[in-house]
Design brief:
heterodimer, A: mainly alpha, 7 helices, B: mainly alpha, 2 helices
Chain lengths: ~170, ~60
Amino acid sequence: LSSDGFASFFHQRYGRTIVLLITMGASRAAAEDATQEAMIAAWQNWESIREPAAWVRTTAIRTLWKHNHQQPPTTPLDGSTPQPPGSEQDLTVFAEEQRQVLSLLRRLPAAQRTVAALYYDGLSIEEIATVTGKPAATVRSHLRHARRTLKEVILSDRPQPAAPAP
Amino acid sequence: VPTVTHNHTDAECAELDNYITRQLGEAAAALMAQDDMPAQLRAMSQKADSKHSGGADVTRRD
C-alpha cells in the first residue's frame, strides 16, 4: 500500500466511519475525534495494515468506547448496554432524508443499533458476530428486529410506485 | 395508504437495505464536502505530498 493508497482510502472511509459511529449513537464531535485518531494511527502504520477498512473501523470504535468509558466492541452487547444516542443536533449537517434515517437507526435498542450500524457499513453477519462477540444467530435476530422497525417506518413513508395497468 | 406486512421478503429487505445504504453514503459524502477538514489530516497530506511528489493529498475534494 502506498501513500497514494492512503489518500484514496481516506476519501472512501473518513466520512463513512464518522457516519458509522454516529449511527451507533455517538455525538458528531465524539465520532469525528475517534475517526481522526484512527485515521492518524492508520497513516502512521499504513505499510503494515493489511485490511485498512476493518482496522480503522475497529480502532475508531474502540477509541470511541474508551473515551466514553464503555465496553469494548468484543464484549457481548445486549439491549441494556448503556449507550444513550447523541442529540438531534448531531444530525443538522445532513439533508432531511438522511437525518430521518440516522435518527431512526439511533433510536433502535442498543444491540440492534450496533448490529444495524455495522451491517449497513458493509459487514457480513459473521463479521458482526466477531466484532460484537455474539453468536451469528443472535446477530441475525437483532438485524431482523431492526429491519422490522425500520421497514415499518421507512417503506410506509416513501412514495409507492404506481400499480401497473391491467 | 401503503400496506405494511411483517413478512419480510427478500425483495423488501433488499429495497430497505439499498435505501439505507444509499442514505448513509450520502450522509458520509455530505461530511466530506464540508470545509472543516481537521488540521491533523492536512499535516498528513503534506507528509504524503513530500513522500510522493504530485501524489496523495488527503484533503482533496472529489
